[in-house]
Amino acid sequence: MTQHQLKEIKTHLIQGLHAVTEQAKSTVLTVENCPDETDFATQLTQQGVNVAIQHRRSVRILELETALKRLSETEYGVCEECGDDIGVARLKANPSTRLCVCCQSAIEDGLTRCA
């Protein structure tokens, strides 16, 4: 992988981290007191969705931070399963990926090894 490609991926990771962090900051997790039980139930349901979204954002922030750390190390761009290089196009599409396409497909298909 060239220095230009690494720089491009790093920029993408930083932008993604910034965007997700800003979204996480703007989420409000409060339930207002409602005289109507239906409104209260609706608010509780919405809060459940908001909590799930916030959790997913937290996981994504961790993924992006981990990818940025790996980027500065020699293991970035190497599949954690088979040790082969992960394609540059795949890294550009998902810079936090840790598996090559073959290993990712094998895991999704319930196989122990890629073909």
Automatic annotation (TrEMBL):
Keywords: Metal-binding, Zinc, Zinc-finger
Lineage top rank: taxon: Bacteria
Residue span, Zinc finger DksA/TraR C4-type domain: 76-108
ZnF bounds (dksA C4-type): 79-103
InterPro entries: DnaK_N, Znf_DskA_TraR, Znf_DskA_TraR_CS
Name of the protein this chain belongs to: Zinc finger DksA/TraR C4-type domain-containing protein
Organism: Pseudodesulfovibrio sediminis
